[in-house]
Specification:
The chain is an alpha/beta fold and 309 residues long. 33% of the residues lie in helices and 19% in strands. The protein has helices at 46-59, 77-85, 106-111, 126-133, 138-151, 171-181, 198-204, 209-218, 250-254, 280-285, 290-302, and strands at residues 3-4, 10-11, 13-17, 63-67, 92-97, 116-120, 156-162, 184-189, 221-224, 231-234, 240-244, 258-261, 266-268, 278-279. The protein starts with a strand and ends in a 7-residue tail after the last helix.
């Protein structure tokens, strides 16, 4: 079965925030577009998450991205990955993590079915990392990156959120780091999403135009991914650099292929909107049938609309 919304966009991916808890305090964090109060201990339980994914898989969503908060803070994360990856129709389970706990989990996650991983490393400068995250934990994160590569969670992607006056001059160093560890570098535009207000956005937002010009000059090839039509540059040293430019970008919205699940168990049709959620976990707790749950998925899909047109 293929899921297509009213704008002709085929959905393939369910992006699930399995917790809103985190062990860092990144100054740019948009909390996956959530605006709930933090720390309410309202994480969806494992059986409910598996039920949500199984309904999505039955409807044709074949890929799952596990996010947070920090997903590795869930004590049942290994079991959760195992159960989701074992579901009929699920072809790939991946994860986004800050990497602080990853060296303890990388091999276990690979064994139970995790295919690949994104790790947030905004800089390899220790002081800049401390300023951005609030903690002096860069060495642990870099150990996590190495563990992920060694475990075969490939392609390992390094997520770098570009921040004005903090790490915008770190691109060459990050390219070199990605080459050394054998990872893809994903440079992400700072987004005005969730708890990010105008003041924070104005302080740290910087266009990726300068990065794009640099990459265009040195790349030996360029192509676009199907997801969000993201441009990818292949550099002479073999590193692939991908740019994520969501702000005021109709192309980004035009090729969006994902439906989100918030840490409170709501289907979220759009990262940038908060008025169109569908509370599927409440329906599960009230004993809704699978057919009724499918209808809630279809309702969420019907509410999808490009934010930037």
């Amino acid at each position: 079965m293929s899921l297509v919304d009213d704008y002709g966009r085929r959905l393939t991916t369910l992006r699930i925030a399995v917790t809103d808890k985190c062990n860092l305090r990144c100054i740019y964090c948009h909390r996956e577009g959530e605006n709930y109060s933090v720390g309410m201990n309202c994480d969806v339980d494992i059986d409910e998450l598996v039920s949500i994914v199984s309904i999505g898989a039955e409807l044709g969503l074949s890929r799952v991205k596990i996010t947070g908060g920090e997903p590795l803070l869930r004590k049942d994360i290994v079991d959760l990955i195992y159960r989701i990856s074992s579901l009929d129709g699920i072809e790939e389970v991946s994860m986004t993590t800050n990497g602080v706990l990853l060296s303890n989990y990388a091999y276990k996650l690979k064994e139970v079915g995790l295919k690949r991983i994104n790790i947030t490393v905004n800089t390899i400068n220790k002081e800049t990392y401390r300023i951005i995250t609030g903690f002096d934990l860069l060495d642990r994160v870099l150990d996590g990156v190495k563990s992920a590569v060694d475990a075969g969670l490939t392609p390992v992607k390094i997520n770098m959120v570009l921040l004005k006056d903090l790490n915008e001059d770190d691109i060459p160093n990050m390219i070199g780091y990605a080459a050394n560890v054998g990872a893809v570098l994903q440079v992400i535009e700072f987004e005005k999403v969730g708890v990010v207000d105008n003041e924070l956005y104005d302080k740290f937002h910087v266009s990726l135009d300068r990065v794009e010009i640099l990459l265009s000059r040195i790349a030996i090839a360029k192509y676009c991914r199907s997801s969000h039509a993201r441009p990818r540059y292949v550099l002479p040293n073999g590193v692939i650099v991908e740019l994520v430019k969501p702000m005021h970008n109709p192309t980004f919205c035009k090729y969006c292929d994902r439906l989100r699940v918030t840490s409170r168990g709501e289907l979220k049709p759009c990262l940038l909107r908060y008025d169109n959620h569908v509370n599927i976990v409440e329906a599960i707790r009230c004993g809704a049938s699978r057919e009724d749950l499918k209808k809630l998925f279809l309702l969420a899909i019907a509410r999808r609309k490009p934010y930037f047109e």
